[in-house]
């Protein structure tokens, strides 16, 4: 089997996908474990100039190859074009995107620098797989340097309708650069349709044929086992004891405005207002480690949440009960798995999300003898598969309130039936299934459009 070269801006710590690493890093960990591979990307450090020669570290079957980002590239490529322009636009939030020509220049420069540092490390029969929105231009840059290897690309985030995407300055340049890619993977069929339409509109109908939907998954049985093992761990027991018999609702997200956190908190507050019999009977724990904390919109969100949580707790708390517990520090994954298992309700209400792995993790973490209820945004990619969840409009606090009320009262047989439906889907499309499907499309054993969609229906 040829070597697999994964390229992503964020390179996880090989020992553990860190607490704020996000879904991409978590999903790829599994993919790398069983094959001779290289993982190329940003070291996570900044330096006066972006690196030209990667630092190499071997871990298991994988060589980690990383470069530092220059201060200017960190500012314009990472904070600027990637996180203040592309991220909001791809999540349908054109109105809050910030555009600056220097940011796009930094984006082009950094994509080219990544390609230049990777090219000398490549072997002729490598399979190259580039990930996510930071690196739309990299395949074209590799081709310009003469690379002939197969190149795949996976977008972990949504792709909006063309009318939204075209609000992004230089949108056409990103689409045209996709010509260099052999297979393009998206999370859902809607995302694929949107990208295909955008490509066709710029005269790239040939590239549109290489786009397919490949829903990403988790290591389902591994996570289930972890959650079961941690159920009696010290920190988990400490949380259980502190609840004094109350039900737990849990939210776990990077502190990101796409996750719908202020709306979720408002929904929880609305539930306590409208259904007062639940007061004192439920505690909502939101774990939201700070992410991209030096981008302006993220700082503003943090202030908004501090205020929102404080307001609801101030209004509703009793001397012996606070409705919301809110943690912005990182919590180790095993502990989170144990917390998820204990939670009667999992609240996953992003305003827009490529997939949302937390939704799948919550399902996997449940005790099959007494599973909790997933409340899931219709705007998460996961909603396509997880139809056993209570599906809500995350923008509507009353909808969230009603789902919370229904979840609190849901009889055990309905909980079990809904969980069984979800668990079947989570088990069927794991991280390794996702990886195999995409790579079989890229490596030519399957047609791209078919490989994803045809198998997306679990058996
Ligand atoms: P995103 O990729 O936008 O961050 P996902 O839900 O797809 O969203 O993936 C997030 C991943 O990061 C999940 O695997 C989740 O368990 C993990 N994660 C999120 N918050 C924390 C946290 N506080 N501590 C540890 N892991 C976390
Ligand atoms: C999401 C994105 C990833 C990104 C992660 C964490 O999962 O899809 O590409 O790596 O968030 O964000 P960060 O900016 O810290 O890499």
TrEMBL record:
This is Trehalose-6-phosphate synthase. Belongs to the glycosyltransferase 20 family. CDD domains: GT20_TPS (cd03788). It comes from Falsiroseomonas tokyonensis. InterPro entries: Glyco_trans_20. The lineage of its organism: Bacteria, Pseudomonadati, Pseudomonadota, Alphaproteobacteria, Acetobacterales. Pfam families: Glyco_transf_20.
């Amino acid at each position: 089997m040829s070597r697999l070269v994964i390229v992503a801006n964020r390179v996880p710590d090989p020992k553990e996908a860190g607490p704020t690493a996000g879904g991409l890093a978590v999903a790829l960990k599994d993919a790398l474990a069983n094959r001779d591979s290289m993982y190329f990307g940003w070291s996570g450090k900044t330096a006066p100039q972006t690196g030209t020669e990667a630092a190499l570290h071997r871990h298991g079957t994988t060589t980690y190859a990383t470069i530092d980002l220059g201060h200017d590239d960190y500012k314009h490529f990472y904070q600027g074009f990637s996180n203040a322009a592309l991220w909001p636009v791809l999540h349908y939030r054109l109105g809050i995107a910030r555009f600056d020509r220097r940011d796009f220049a930094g984006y082009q420069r950094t994509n080219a620098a990544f390609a230049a540092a990777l090219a000398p490390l490549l072997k002729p029969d490598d399979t190259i797989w580039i990930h996510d929105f930071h690196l739309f231009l990299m395949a074209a840059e590799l081709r310009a340097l003469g690379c002939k290897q197969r190149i795949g690309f996976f977008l972990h985030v949504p792709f909006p309708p063309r009318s939204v995407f075209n609000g992004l300055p230089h949108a056409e340049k990103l689409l045209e650069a996709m010509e260099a890619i052999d297979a393009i993977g998206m999370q859902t069929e809607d995302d694929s349709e949107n990208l295909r339409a955008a490509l066709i509109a710029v005269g790239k109908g040939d590239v549109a044929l290489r786009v397919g939907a490949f829903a990403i998954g988790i290591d389902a049985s591994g996570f289930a086992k972890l959650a079961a093992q941690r159920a009696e761990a010290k920190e988990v027991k400490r949380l259980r004891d502190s609840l004094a018999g109350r039900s737990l609702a849990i939210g776990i997200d990077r502190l990101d405005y796409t996750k719908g956190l202020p709306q979720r908190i408002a929904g929880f507050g609305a539930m306590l207002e409208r259904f007062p019999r639940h007061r004192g009977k439920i505690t909502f724990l939101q774990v939201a480690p700070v992410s991209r904390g030096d981008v302006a919109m993220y700082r503003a969100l943090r202030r908004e949440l501090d205020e929102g949580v404080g307001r609801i707790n101030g209004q509703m708390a009793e001397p012996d009960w606070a409705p919301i517990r809110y943690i912005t520090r990182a919590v180790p994954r095993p502990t989170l798995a144990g917390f998820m298992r204990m939670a009667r309700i999992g609240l996953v209400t992003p305003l827009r999300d490529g997939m949302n792995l937390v939704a799948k993790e919550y399902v996997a973490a449940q005790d099959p003898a007494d599973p909790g209820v997933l409340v899931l945004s219709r705007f998460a990619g996961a909603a396509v598969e997880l139809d056993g969840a209570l599906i809500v409009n995350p923008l509507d606090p009353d909808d969230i309130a009603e789902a919370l009320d229904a979840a609190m009262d849901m009889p055990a047989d309905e909980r079990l039936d809904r969980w069984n439906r979800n668990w079947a889907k989570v088990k069927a499309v794991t991280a390794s299934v996702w990886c195999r499907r995409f790579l079989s499309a890229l490596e030519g054993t399957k047609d791209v459009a078919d490989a994803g969609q045809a198998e997306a229906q679990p058996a």
